[in-house]
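Long-time lurker. I teach an intro course on protein structure, and each term I like to show students one example going from raw sequence to a predicted 3D structure in token notation. This year I'd like something fresh instead of my usual example. Would anyone be willing to generate the tokens for the chain below so I can use it in lecture? Attribution to the forum is fine with me.
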Amino acid sequence: MDDPIRTEVMKHRLVSVAEEMGARLQRAAFSSNIKERCDFSCAVFDETGNLVAQAAHIPVHLGAMPLSVQGCLETLTFAPGDVAMVNDPYRGGTHLPDITVVSPIFVNGHTESTLLGFVANRAHHADVGGMSAGSMPLSQEIFQEGFIIPPVKLMVNGQKNEDVWRLLMANVRTPDERVGDLQAQLAANHIGMERMQELAKRFGVQTLLADMDALLNYSERMTCQLLGQLPIGCYAFEDALDGDGFAEKPAVIKVAVTIERERATVDFSGTDAQRAGSINAVYPVTLSSVAYVFRCVLGLDIPANSGCLRPIHIIAPEGTLVNARHPSAVAAGNVETSQRIVDVLLGALAQACPERIPAASQGTMNNLTIGGWDARHGRPFAYYETIGGGMGAGPHSHGVSGRHSHMTNTLNTPVEALEYAYPFRILRYALREGSGGKGRQQGGNGLIRTYEFLQSAEVTLLCDRRVTQPFGLEAGKSGQPGRNRLKQNGVEKDLPGKCSILIQKDDVLTIESPGGGGFGSH
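-- Reply from a regular --
Happy to contribute to a lecture. Here you go:
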């Protein structure tokens, strides 16, 4: 029988490994997107690729990472000193800028090395090639979005696989930055391997393997217990994305959550077919979103690992927005569609357990990429940012203002760091007062961020909730939709949520992010 005290202690030991990996990755990274915004995630896996422990990083990364590790296991044979990488969304990735680095953990036995498990981290690289700087284009097929990396070995027997490094760096706009960030990812995995080997030496390999299995089983039991507390029934909800950047027609996502004893079925049947634009989500993104929502309903004390999903069956019809077919464009599926999947799941579960579910948060990451030739330094540049907004109000609290929510968990790029590194400046950065939905509990306010350009550049926006609004609950009002504005030659005009434009010197771009929904009658 599992020892609950030992399980709790081991949970914290393994989480601390992932947290230390993240600290090293942040310190060693070159790009502001990783060093300043902390757009990365780290986790520990067992020998079959199950996620055993994770740091408190980014939900859309962590829920999908087991499929990346398992994809590497299916394709590659690992030996001590090997390290793999992958970014292919159709091989367990999310979108191409997210590069996952996977390292096996070997421990020496009496006669040969034993595979204990894996450590892995996923980091968003500010550019991986493709049709526009920042690799988040207004695309219509995945080949336009950047360099596709199937599971390959980045390191072999402790040595760089030079051919792979050269091939990757020849296909990106900022190779020096990419080398620095990849080396930081390797350093993070290295410290993770060391810490796991230390645990194996202290407790024994078989004991540690049993402890990891006990953590998975514990999370499964607690998930079953939670589901058993919910009223049996089928709870349906639907919401929509504004469009895909090529057609204004809303893209509808439907879900039916069926609770039956200690099991749940999450069925996305009826969701719209995949679109020409990049709002298509691959299955790992949908899996991440489902894992995140049920993990939130579970509570903070339950270990976040693959065991949480064992009692949950997901139906995501192939060829739809929630399970796109290759070679569909998917850059925005990871960042925008994941947020709407969360919204529909929360809307459904609010019918089953209204005391646990908040109103909709801003429902977008407000993705902004800026790139071009930096005349100051005589080299290309690529900048990527997501912008926070209003969080939805809950049954007992107001929504928080100006925060990232749900599937993202990053910081902003500090103004000082941004203006030092890139050829533009921030004219305004403030809360968007009054944008949160009214209610007994008020929705959080969005943000206003205004950029002035010091030279020409290419800008791509992948935003949502510019037409649809974050919904309120229990008679609470919806949050205000976002707005994008461009001022050129003294004339200001509205921009669509998803667009790619050429910016000239002295142009001014303003992004106003949505507010969160309100909760309860005012």
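Some talking points for your students: The first helix runs from residue 4 to 28. The longest strand covers residues 113-124.
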